[in-house]
Amino acid sequence: MKINTKTLSLAIADACRLAPRFANEDGELIFNDLRRLFPALTEDQADLITTRVCINAKAGSKAIGWDAFASDLLKEMSPSLDNLFGDVAGALDKLTIIK
Q1: What is the three-class DSSP state of 6?
Q2: Of 49, 57, 61, 84, which cross-links 19 as Cys (Cβ 3.0–4.6 Å)?
């Protein structure tokens, strides 16, 4: 099953929201939350998102800002966005990260 862009952007936003709190000890909670809230995500997709947000949350001064991080991950996971929107602005407008 192919996941739609809106669902993918919401999953990334959710993981970014949880990562600062849970990345150090409970990354599995992020993975489980993604699988529960976004059943269209495959295990591989949920694992990729979880791994990346945990790495960024633990990166200290080398961390990428969450907005830029989410944008980059969304572009990486949705190479067909360019065909759907002409650019990723349409999808990223829907991406809100709660800080």
Answers
A1: helix
A2: 57
Going by C-alpha positions, the residue among 16, 17, 6 that lies closest to residue 92 is 6
Quote the pTM value: 0.77
Q: For 46-66, write each residue's pLDDT tens digit.
A: 999 999 999 999 998 899 999
Long-range own/partner contacts, residues 66-70 (CB < 8 A, 24 or more apart): 66/16, 66/97, 66/99, 67/97, 69/16, 70/9, 70/12, 70/13, 70/16, 70/95, 70/97
**33 and 26 in contact (C-beta within 8 Å)?**
no
Domain ranges for the chain: 5-92
Locate 73 and state its tokens: 């991950």
